[in-house]
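Session log. Operator J.P. requested a structure for one protein chain; no other inputs attached. Running the standard single-chain path with C-alpha cell output.
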Amino acid sequence: MKKKIGIVVGVLVLLVAAAGGIYYYMTNTPKNKYLLSEKQSIESWNTYFADRYSNELKLQEAMREEPYRSSVTFSAGASDTLLSMLGIPSAIVDSTSITLNMGHDEKAQQSEVSLAPTFAGTEIDKFEWTADKDAQYIKTPLFTDKLMVKNADMKKVYERFTGESVPEDFDPNMVNLNKLMEANFTQQQLEEMQERYLKVAIESLEDEQFKKGSETTAIFGNNEKLATVTMTLNNDDLHKVLKNMVAEMKKDEAIKNWYNSSMSTYDTQSYEETLDNLLEDVKSENFGTVVAKNYMDGKEILKRDITWKSDTANDGIHVMIAEKIDQDVQLDVVVQDLDSTVFARLEGTSKGAGNVVDNYKLTLGENDMPFTIAMKNDEKVNGDERTNNVDFIVEDDSGELYQATYKNTMVTDLKNNKQTSRGSIAFDVIEGENVTINIDSTTTVKQKLDVKRDGAVDLNKMSDEEFEQLQQSIMTNVQLLVDQLNLANSF
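Structure written below.
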C-alpha cells in the first residue's frame, strides 16, 4: 500500500512539474511563473534529445504506424587463454549464437517472434510464435506440426492442457501476441492524454499554494542569487488533485481499453473496480506535505529543491536537482533523508554537438559503504552513422573495481526505412582476459509480414489420443534435442 501511494505521489509531482507545458495564465502570479519555468525546462530537454537522436526517434515513431521486422543476433567471444583456463573448447564458443526475430503489423493484425539457436555449429529448428487476427500459431522442434489456438478458444485449450478450470484472473490477451506487441498509444494520443491530465492537476491547484522569493544558492559550485517560486501541497491538497485525476480516468476510454487488453491486467478486478479501490486508498492515506522550490534565471530552472515530509512520523525524502541544458548538459541529482544522509547521487555532463562526450557517475549509499558506477561515452556522428565507445567502471564498497567496455556502430537510414547496428560488450573477467558479447541487429520498417496457417493443427479439435501423442512427442523431442546438441559431452 505504501509503495502504491508513494508512486502515485511521485507521478503527481511530475505531472505538476510538467503542467506548465499546457496551461498558461495571463497574470504574472507565482503560479504562472512556476508553470512557465517548468514548461521551459521540458522544452529544453525535449529539444536536446530530439536534436541529438533525430533519426532514431523518427524511425521509432514510424514503427508505431507501419509494419516492421527486427532481428538481433547474440554471440560470444573469448581468448584461447581464457577458454583454456575455463576448460571450454574455443570451437564451441565460436560456432554458437542465438537470433531473436520480431515483427508486427498493427493494421493487418499480424505478429511474429522466433528464436533461432545455433549450438556448436548445429542449427536448431526455430522456436516460432506467430499470430493473425484470429489465432495464435506455435512451431518448435518439440513437435512435428504447427499448432494453432484460435483466440476464441484460449480458455478451452487452457483447461485441456492443465486439466483444471480456468482461473478467474486468466486473461486471453496475455497470450495474444498481437496484443502483447501492439503500440499502446500513438504519439498524438499520448500528447492528448498528457494535456488532459495535466490540465486536471493544474486546475486542482490554488494560487496561494505558490510563493515568490529570492535566495542565494550554490549552482555547480558557484553561488548565484536567483528568483525562487515555492509550491507547497499538504495532505488535503494532494487528496484533491488525486481524486480529481481518478474521476477523469473513469471517463477515459483509451486507458480503459489499454487496461483491458494489455499485460497490465494481472488480477480479477475490472477497470472500474481498480479505480474505486485506488480512490479508497487515496481517501485513507495520509500523504504528508510536499514542498517544491524552483531556483530560476528568468524562465530557466537552474535548481530544484523538493522535500516530502510525513505528517505522522519523523521521516521524509529530500531531493536536490541542479541542471543546465543548452548545447551541453550538466546535471547533479542528490537524494537524501531529512538528516542529510545521502541515498544516491547522479552527477555529470554531456558536452558537444554531433560528437558528444558523456561523463556520469552514480553513487549509491554515499555516506555509508558507497557503491559507484562511472560511465564515459565517446559518441561520434557522421551522416546516418552513430558510433559509441562506452567505458564502465564499477567500484563496490570494498574498493574492488570491475570494468566493461561497450562499442557500437549504428546506421539509421530513414530513406530506406532501415536501421543496422553492430555492437559488443567486453568484460574484464580473469587477469586481464576479456569475455565479449556481440550484439548485431537489423530493423526494417514498412516490411509486411506474411503469417500463414500452412496446415496448422487446431489444438481444440484434437482427439484425446492425438493430444496424448502430442504430449509424448514433446517429452521425446526434448531428450532428442539434448542428444542432438551433445550437451553431455560438450565440456
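Operator note: The chain has twelve helices and 21 strands.
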